[in-house]
Specification:
The chain is mostly helical. Helix content is 72%, strand content 2%. It has a two-stranded antiparallel ribbon with strand order 1-2. Strand 1 and strand 2 form a beta hairpin.
């Protein structure tokens, strides 16, 4: 642990990791908005190129444009969720002082639940704002169905994270720290 000028214990490696993952998270959000800002023709050309690439590997008719677009939504928001989860996790670990653990009101019962909740809401808010943004792009439309599809990627990743965390705790013979 290193000490800063205020004599507060901080973890420099966690600070560096938090900055790294926040930069990646914000960069990924910017990329999502950049791609959503493409007009309908450019967006269609991009997905058609992906269809042609997939068909070159698996044969003609292996996939349709709509499948490519929806799978892209799931993958894009899965990546965002992983990045935001890591950013929140490392941010929480910067200081060894755990103010939430000392709080008399405990809405969230563990750190892992907090990381999951914050990354879920950040990813979901990004999906909603992104679809709203598309309402103002030529040849594009915002769709609540796409937000639901984005949510599938978000939820799948968070379930996987939760399972991995539980297996990890069982493997090291530990229990999750729960705030009561």
């Amino acid at each position: 642990m290193a000490k800063n000028v205020n004599n507060t214990d901080i973890s420099i490696p966690d600070l560096i990791a938090a900055l790294f993952f926040w930069i990646l998270t914000v960069g990924w959000i910017i990329l999502l908005f950049y791609l959503s800002n493409e007009n309908g023709i450019t967006s269609t050309e991009r997905s058609n190129a992906a269809v042609r690439f997939i068909e070159s590997i698996f044969g003609e008719g292996a996939v349709t444009d709509i499948v490519v677009r929806k799978v892209a939504h799931v993958v894009e928001y899965s990546i965002l969720t992983v990045l935001s989860f890591c950013a929140v996790r490392f941010t929480n670990r910067i200081s060894v002082v755990k103010s939430y653990a000392e709080s008399p009101v405990k809405i969230i019962k563990s750190d892992n639940e907090m990381y999951i909740a914050i990354s879920m809401w950040l990813s979901l808010l990004t999906a909603v704002v992104d679809e709203y943004h598309q309402l103002f792009v030529d040849g594009r439309d915002g769709s609540m169905k796409d937000v639901v599809i984005d949510s599938i990627g978000i939820v799948i990743v968070l379930i996987i994270i939760r399972i991995i965390f539980s297996i990890h705790l069982r493997f090291i013979g530990s229990k999750e720290v729960r705030y009561e």
